[in-house]
Amino acid sequence: MVKLYATSFFRRNKASQRVGETLTESFTERTAGIWVPMVFYAAGGIYILAFWAAFSLSAYHLLALGIASILVAVFLFSLSKWAYWVGLFTFPLLVIEFLYALMFSVNIAGWDPNPVLAAFNASMVVYLVLLCFSFLLLIDKRNTLKSDRFMDKLSSSVLPPKKEETKEETKAT
Questions:
Q1: pLDDT tens digits for range 77-114
Q2: Are 36 and 137 contacting, i.e. CB atoms less than 8 angstroms apart?
Q3: Quick check: 134 and 73 in contact, CB under 8 A?
Q4: Which residues, including other chains, have CB under 8 Å from residue 120's CB and lie 6 or more apart?
Q5: Which is nearest to 40 in space by CA: 134, 112, 115?
Q6: Predicted structure pTM score
Q7: Cβ(135)–Cβ(87) under 8 Å?
């Protein structure tokens, strides 16, 4: 009985030790090249959603781009390859959206008609610069991102388990 207790105690320690190692390894994988775009995409998504909520609820493209930006941040946090693909897809859309909004604002009111509009135009320019910088970091760190564990778990739960071949079946083939 004592031996059984000691065996289960050591098994528990080995398992908890592996969990601690996994957390440490995943934390060190998130370098500044992952944290900077993650924070920017999250802040940018919130900025887009705030702009959508404050000015026009009928601009559904802003809602979609804001949610996509936040998804990129979530995928970056989980070190998923989806961050790369969603970021790659949304980058040109975000650049076009912000350039169009900036040019529209400048054509209607000019660069510096009042402090509020000047701050808005400056925020758009800063957003575009940080978007380009974050996108370059995202492309640079694409090899650190791993395959999506969620999709792996989903496919393993949907598909039947793989059948292991026995020695007799191997000899027959």
A1: 888 888 888 888 989 988 998 888 888 888 887 766 78
A2: yes
A3: no
A4: 105
A5: 134
A6: 0.63
A7: yes
**Confidence band of 117 (pLDDT split at 50, 70, 90):** confident
Nearest to 141 by CA among 21, 24, 38: 38
- Interval 136-147: pLDDT, tens: 888 888 887 776
Spatial neighbors of 16 by CB under 8 A, at least 6 apart, are none
Q: Are 80 and 149 in contact (CB under 8 A)?
A: yes
Whose structure tokens read 């083939």? 173
Distance (Å, rounded) from C-alpha 86 to C-alpha 69?
Answer: 8
What integer is the mean pLDDT of 5-21? 49
Residue owning tokens 């970091």: 137
DSSP H helical ranges for the chain: 2-29, 32-55, 60-77, 82-109, 115-140, 149-158, 167-172
According to DSSP, the residues that pair with 138 across neighbouring strands are: none
